[in-house]
Amino acid sequence: MNPKHFKYKDGLILESGYRLEDITIAYHTYGEYNPQKNNVIWVCHALTANSDVFDWWAGLFGQEDFFNPREHFIVCANILGSCYGSTGPLSENPNTGKLFYHEFPQLTVRDLVAAHELLRIELGIDKIHTLIGSSLGGMQALEWAYNLNEHLEHLVFLASNAQHSAWGIAFNESQRMAISVDSTWKESNKNAGLEGMKTARSIALLSYRNYQTYQDTQSETEPDKQDDFKASSYQNYQGLKLANRFNAYSYWQLSKIMDGHNIGRGRISSKNALSQIEVKTLVIGVESDLLFPIAEQKFIAQNIPGAQYAEIRSLYGHDGFLLEQKQLTKVIQSFYK
Hints:
The protein is α/β, with parallel strands linked by helices. It folds into 2 domains: 4-165 and 262-336, Rossmann fold (3-Layer(aba) Sandwich); 168-257, Orthogonal Bundle (Rna Polymerase Sigma Factor, Chain: A). Helices cover 38% and strands 16% of the residues. It contains 12 helices and 10 strands. The chain has helices at residues 53-56, 109-122, 136-148, 166-180, 194-208, 211-218, 230-243, 248-259, 270-275, 294-303, 320-323, 325-336; strands at 4-8, 12-13, 19-20, 23-30, 40-44, 73-77, 128-134, 152-158, 280-286, 308-312. The chain has an 8-stranded mixed beta sheet, with helices on both faces. A two-stranded antiparallel sheet has the order 2-3. α5 (194-208) packs across α7. The chain starts with a strand and ends with a helix. The model has no long low-confidence stretch (mean pLDDT 97). This is Homoserine O-acetyltransferase. Its main location: cytoplasm.
């Protein structure tokens, strides 16, 4: 299913003050907006995902899943800075007629949310029944919920935080260091930095999983083996897999966006900002998540008035939010009830 494209000619003023001209937002919709206008499910995607949520969150979103197009009007927009159809580093800069590459302006989570808001208005959506997001998508959902309030009924927030941690920033910086030592990174072409990004993805995967994940899935059965280990092949495979579908410019940009996330910036504190979110909220943590430990989700649940907290168990750490669809379905069903 190909995405639709919304072109906004008036330009978007970013938090930095930079005017991003002629933006394009790629998005998918599934189902129909009902006459009561109360069935919108809006998904905010994570770092390297796209707007086709039926592809990457199958089991929770799909024809026969909990969020399905028979009952819901499901919307997912590709974020600015990405490489799946929305304006990003490989887009043409209207001011120069050349591709942006390294000249693409630095974005923030609030800039991503501003683009979502433009699309919401374009689609004529007055109220979102449920806004759901995890990881970088959770950062977007939280920031947008702060602004939406009367236009939003439910927030489902997974495996993310109110302010990105020093731990998370350190992982992201290590990945950018890997990209920057790639001798091609300073070039202006779509393949620049790809070898570095393979290493960056390998580093990232260590934060997405955990010790037990690798013990259970990548341990060797041959005790005398000295090379070509399963874990080594797995890391290389995951790096190559991302390099075949993504670009280093977007990876760099989006990791920077994560680092700058802080719901409390300019709002006294994170606690104060969270206290202003007046929608029914479900916060979900993954008990084995190393990148976004459950203490971060508990903090959010404790500070959004009336928020509920749920926890899922998973061998797969942070990636549990993508893989434990049955558990997620159960806790979201209970939240609605």
